[in-house]
Every structure is written in structure tokens, then in C-alpha cells.
Task: inverse folding
């Protein structure tokens, strides 16, 4: 397979590249800067500089590729204060629509698009949400989720007029090695390691290994049905106290012993965002992130398991590998636990 990957320096995109190379496929990666993608070039990946706000600038490079894996997205708003809607719409919605048109014009045979499980609302009565569950108020309030929802609608509009098959993957909250940005999950882990989380708080997340999502996306390229959505998310949300207990076991850094009510955490999140605006540093506790993670959001990835063979490794394994990766590749971010973490081993 000759594969073209957007977002290749991100957590999911990087996992995709590794899975493609391991399977013997050739890979072209669209990156914003070749200088920051030397690790990909060293693996034999062909690099193309590009920007999702200017798809026409790299569109000619799509020619000759059988499958396009679209994993690029703008997600800063999810963990930073401020209104980033213009950027979110330009990249996640308009950029996706432009990329699909360019892929069709270039003769690409199939597209696998990474959406988000965040486009799904809660199912009635506490039942697990699946690909058919409609969005709720939270989806529309969270600007990142809203951008992904509108991107899915842009895909549907494209499919109504095109024969190019597009398969949509809806990942959960992704963790795993290779989180170079880092993403919101990586920042949470680093804040934990550096003792920036003095208390625990009520909250849940569908912690999903990016490598498992990447494997499902490869399967989608082979046998996923065009126009179909596949939820690829750990079905049982993990509580934050469970996540912190695993991090304590693996890192030796003590978990916070004090748990505070949701209202206190939300007030602290507003204070964190106010401090972020003054300091220019990322908010440790973003308001919208706290709201999103307040309650469990069970899901069912039965369709992905049935049609794509999606499986999910234990969270302990994911965290072990991510901690070891940070210690080896970004030791300056890990803090005093770096030595112990490097000895964990990483896939």
C-alpha cells in the first residue's frame, strides 16, 4: 500500500506511521516542518511540507497514493483558554473538506478519517453510546467536539456527490508513547509526575491507546465500508483515582490523597485559565476539559470489533509504555522520576 498520512508528527499520526511501516507499506507524511520531522525521515518516510489551511499547497503530492489517512487536527482549544473557533473551523472542518476534494482529484482510492468519539452524546438511560447516538448539548458547547461534528457533516456532504470511499473512525481519549506535542492526556501525565496535581477530583475518561486506534484505521483501509462510522474507544471509562493509582504504581510518584468536589475543581479551573492568560503558559486545568470529564460516558465499540477487529490493550500497558517513552525522549519534562521510568521498557 502507498499511504499518505496527515498529522504524522502527532500521537495518532505517529502511531499510524509506525503501524504502516511495520506492515511493509510505503508512507508519505504531510508535516508542517521537515526540520521537526527528522525522526520520520530516519525511518524511511517521505516528507511533504504542508498546512491544512492551505491544502492546495501540498495537494499535488497526493497523486500516486492508494489510501489517505487523515489524522491532522487542531485541538489546542480543548486545553487552552480563549476562543479558537476560527482556527478550529479552518483546519478541522474546511481543511478536511478541501482535502477530500483534493484526494478525489488526485485519484486516491480510499480515505480513512480520524474523527472523535466526542461527537457522540450520551445515550438514554445510561446505556452505552455507539455510532448512532446523536450529539447532545456538551458536543455543541465544546468547540473541539463541535468542529469534529461539523467535519463529519462535511464528509457526509462530500459522499453525497462523490464515489471516493471515506471511512470515519471515532477514537476515544488517546494515550500512548510518541506524544510529542504533548496532547491533553500527555500533559495530564506530566503534571502528575511533576506533582502539579495536589488533589484528585471526580472525573472519567475513555482512555484509549493510540496504537490500538491506528491498528483499527489500517483495518479500515482494507475492509472498512465507505460512509460508515466506527467507534474505536475503550468501552469502560476510567476514573481519575484509578488512573492516578496506576501512575503511582508505575512511577513511584505518590498519587494525591485528597479528593475535592466537582464545584471546587471547576472554580480552580477558572482560576487556572485566568493565570494562563496572564502568564502565557498552558492552563493546567481547562474549564471545558473539566466539564467534559465530569461524568462517565460509556460507549460500545462492538461494531469496530466486529468489522475491523478492534481490540484494546490494558491501560496499565499503555501508561507503562508512555511513561518510558517520555523518560527516554523528553526526560526534561518528566522530573525526578526519569530514571525509574526509563527502566520500564517501551514498545
Result:
Amino acid at each position: 500500500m502507498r499511504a499518505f498520512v496527515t498529522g504524522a508528527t502527532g500521537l495518532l499520526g505517529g502511531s499510524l506511521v509506525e503501524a504502516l511501516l511495520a506492515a511493509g507499506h510505503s508512507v508519505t507524511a504531510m508535516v508542517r516542518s521537515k526540520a521537526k520531522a527528522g525522526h520520520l525521515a530516519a525511518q524511511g518516510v517521505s516528507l511533504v511540507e504542508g498546512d491544512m489551511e492551505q491544502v492546495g499547497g501540498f495537494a499535488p503530492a497526493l497523486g500516486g497514493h492508494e489510501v489517505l489517512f487523515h489524522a491532522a487536527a487542531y485541538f489546542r482549544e480543548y486545553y487552552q483558554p480563549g476562543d479558537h473557533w476560527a482556527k478550529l473551523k479552518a483546519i478541522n472542518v474546511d481543511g478536511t473538506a478541501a482535502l477530500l476534494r483534493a484526494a478525489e482529484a488526485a485519484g486516491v482510492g480510499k480515505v480513512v478519517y480520524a474523527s472523535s468519539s466526542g461527537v457522540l452524546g450520551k445515550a438514554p438511560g445510561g446505556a452505552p453510546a455507539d455510532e448512532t447516538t446523536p450529539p447532545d448539548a456538551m458536543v455543541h458547547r465544546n468547540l473541539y467536539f463541535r468542529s469534529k461534528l461539523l467535519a463529519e457533516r462535511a464528509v457526509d456532504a462530500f459522499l453525497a456527490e462523490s464515489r471516493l470511499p471515506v471511512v470515519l473512525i471515532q477514537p476515544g481519549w488517546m494515550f500512548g508513547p510518541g506524544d510529542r506535542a504533548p496532547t491533553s492526556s500527555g500533559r495530564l501525565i506530566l503534571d502528575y509526575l511533576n506533582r502539579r496535581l495536589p488533589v484528585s477530583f471526580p472525573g472519567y475518561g475513555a482512555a484509549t491507546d493510540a496504537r490500538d486506534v491506528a491498528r483499527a484505521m489500517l483495518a479500515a483501509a482494507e475492509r472498512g465500508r465507505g460512509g460508515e462510522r466506527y467507534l474505536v474507544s475503550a468501552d469502560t471509562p476510567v476514573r481519575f483515582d484509578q488512573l492516578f493509582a496506576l501512575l503511582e504504581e508505575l512511577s513511584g510518584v505518590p498519587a494525591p490523597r485528597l479528593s475535592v468536589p466537582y464545584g471546587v475543581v471547576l472554580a480552580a479551573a477558572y482560576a487556572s485559565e485566568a493565570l494562563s492568560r496572564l502568564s502565557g503558559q498552558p492552563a493546567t486545568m481547562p474549564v471545558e476539559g473539566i466539564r467534559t470529564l465530569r461524568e462517565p460516558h460509556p460507549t460500545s465499540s462492538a461494531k469496530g470489533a466486529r468489522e475491523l477487529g478492534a481490540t484494546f490493550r490494558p491501560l496499565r500497558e499503555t501508561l507503562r509504555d508512555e511513561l518510558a517513552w517520555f523518560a527516554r525522549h523528553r526526560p526534561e519534562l518528566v522530573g525526578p522520576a526519569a530514571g525509574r521510568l526509563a527502566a520500564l521498557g517501551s514498545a
